[in-house]
Protein 1
Amino acid sequence: MRERTRGSALSVLTPCPPLRNAERGDEGGASSEQRVSQRQLGVRVLVTGAGGMLGTAVQAAVPSTVQLVALRHADLAVEDAQAVERAVARERAEWIVNCAGYTQVDRAEAEPDAAERVNARGPANLARAARDTGARLLHISTDYVFDGRAARPYREDDPVGPLNVYGRTKLAGEQAVRDILPQTHLIVRTQWLFGEGGPNFVATILRLARERSELQVVNDQHGRPTYAPDLAAALWKLIACDARGTVHCANEGAATWFDVAKAAIEIAGLHTTVVPCSTADMPRPARRPQFSVLDCTRYAACTDSSLRGWRDAMNAYVPRLDVM
Ligand SMILES: NC(=O)c1ccc[n+]([C@@H]2O[C@H](COP(=O)([O-])OP(=O)(O)OC[C@H]3O[C@@H](n4cnc5c(N)ncnc54)[C@H](OP(=O)(O)O)[C@@H]3O)[C@@H](O)[C@H]2O)c1
């Protein structure tokens, strides 16, 4: 377990507008708590799954005077209900940020029980512990709860329809959190993460680009590449404005994996040729949505801000890798 404390208070800067009636009508009007006050808060926050890509970024972006308790998988396995109960009671956190996840989308097809334990049972345990202690829960979910057949970016209350085990278990986790904390949950759906602290598509592509002169990359899946540190900063903003319900959050601009690969290779100054191909050319165990671009309007309304464009974020990330 690692605990970090920083100096001054978490600033609450921008008004959080009334939340739209999302999912099941339990997020209707804005309460006074949904509006941001100008005062500053000191908050104790427990992060689970702290050793992963997003967990690492959440720790790095911690605002001053937030007392952070960072629990890695080895410190707390979220599917262990008693351990979760003990940890949440012991830490007396005002917020729990659940960055733990079974994130191997293809492997989940062969290990549905393992994925279910982490992605569904884990958040349910955390939600119960939050309910019992009065803590707030911020749970991270995914664009893969959608079936990818939309003709426009997905809004928070659009119908879900996961195509794979990973998406189904993540959706079950969302539903458990909503059922247990109908008024106070915060579920942030994001997509296509890249960043330090974990394997990701950009790092993999750049490793392969150093080894090969040509790479084939899928060009018919559309999403928003999202830089984990940008998302982490956004999560702290959502906590600061006491957001509730479901919120989509990703870097600006849509892309295909082909676009992402080309941009990464170009920024890294490599000369590997990137050849577009279709999903059908590269069969994988798990089906993916063809179009899962998230509409982040609600995040913008909540925080009065948006994340920078994904290419700008990649310009910041790629030079930090040791492929340059
Ligand atoms: N990566 C993406 O593109 C993406 C897209 C959309 C949403 N998300 C969501 O974002 C969240 C963070 O993902 P990430 O990209 O940071 O993934 P990650 O790098 O794989 O991190 C997940 C972390 O969860 C930990 N973990 C696994 N099983 C656990 C358990 N039973 N109890 C406690 N911790 C456990 C892992 O530890 P070990 O490695 O030690 O097992 C790892 O540190 C997840 O909820 C994921 O579903 C990710």
Protein 2
Amino acid sequence: MFPITQTLTLGREIQYAEPSETASGDPFEWQVAFHYSEALFKGFSGPIGSGKSRALCYEALALGYGNPGCLGLIGAPTYPMLRDSTLLAFRQMLDENDVPYRFHKSEYSLLLLESGSQILFRALDNFERIRGPNLAFFGVDELTYCRPESWLRLEGRLRDRKAKRLCGFASWTPKGFDWVYDRFIGPDKKPGYEAFLAEQNPALPADYYKRLGASYSERFYKQEALGEYLNVFSGQAYYAFDRKAQMGNVIYKPEHPLFWALDFNVNPLCSVYGQVINGLVRVLDELVLPNSNTLAACEEFLARTAKLAGPLQVYVYGDPSGEGRRTAASRTDWQIVREFFRRYPDRFSAQFRVPSAAGPVKDRVNCVNAQLLNYAGKRRLFLNTTCGELAKDFEQIVWKADPSGRALVELDKSDLMRSGNERSKSYKYRRRATPSTPARRVRQRLPCLHLLLRSRSRPDPNTRLAKLPRTLQH
Ligand SMILES: Nc1ncnc2c1ncn2[C@@H]1O[C@H](COP(=O)(O)OP(=O)(O)OP(=O)(O)O)[C@@H](O)[C@H]1O
Ligand SMILES: [Mg+2]
């Protein structure tokens, strides 16, 4: 049996994890260090799949046995994450080891029958609800996806007088220099706090992290798969773009279909078309139409593609909100595009790929960066020399920061597009625009390239990209 501390033991055999060819099933070094820590508040930070949830569950089980008859709590950022991941992992550990328990679904609590201690399972997105109980211990999975207020509420409940060992603990994947970093790791970390850094899990399939390297951008890989603390959301959003390496003479290849990606929510109305050949996105041209409308964009697309021998197969990607917005002609943007293609059945064969939601901004940016340059060092997105505005977007869109310079996971929309004549004067004004610029529309175009990329990639269900956005949306 793996001993937890000198004073607390589970009093029964617990197999920490399933043994495999590459792992004995005993806790990894970083898990041992975490469990041995006697800090009042401790954390476990590490790459995706490094055994964070397993460590969290084991710690909760150990404290449940070490604090007989007491109350503990296990939390996760949202209810779906709690139900589908953390609770599942906890029950799996109990079942694998024949630990007797009773789960009360109506209360979402679990009674450990041998120690008589009870564990509440709670989603922490509504931290106002965390009131009442005096806790002997609490553990939070994926803490970096929780608000600091929820942690503070839990801290305030850690006061069970019957407890032999009070402890608040958490596991997480790094998310830059955020409140979790400040509290547990940074130079001004709180007294009584300790954090342990995990490494990649050797028990996972041999090519697991390598595969992530091919689909993650360099910075995102370092954060998610190496567990590093980085300013992922600071400075240039599309930092991976290199004009010299990625802009040149991109030629149309008639044997491959076209894509056309549109964004209706910007002025100028922007779209790009190109081809995807062997996984390489080749942008042939951009359509930038100031003060225009969707129909005009369609006509422009017709004119620009006139030189290409038809009929043309076109995959149309775009902004889901195009269904909702009504134009002066009182039709939705997508209706207009559909009608346009219906008018030219001999010229185009169009298929629409419009998702129901655009997805979180950090994922959108990351998937474009991964295409611009993945961790393996491969560039898979190229622009024709005519795509000057798109290149400028890549170079100039920056992440937003709060007044003290801390990164916010939002693109900076302060660099706003000037309208009408003012806009058309010169591109040079954009760099000078300040948050107080009296401009009307947001200059952030990159017309829906992320939608093209995301719908093409088949996400690995184990990756955070596939998992977190879905669960966090609830
Ligand atoms: N010490 C260990 N030895 C062998 N396998 C382990 C060990 N710790 C965890 N595992 C296994 O590794 C896999 C990933 O573990 P776990 O889910 O705890 O990681 P995680 O860091 O929480 O992952 P994610 O980042 O996806 O939330 C699981 O199948 C788990 O059982
Ligand atoms: Mg986990």
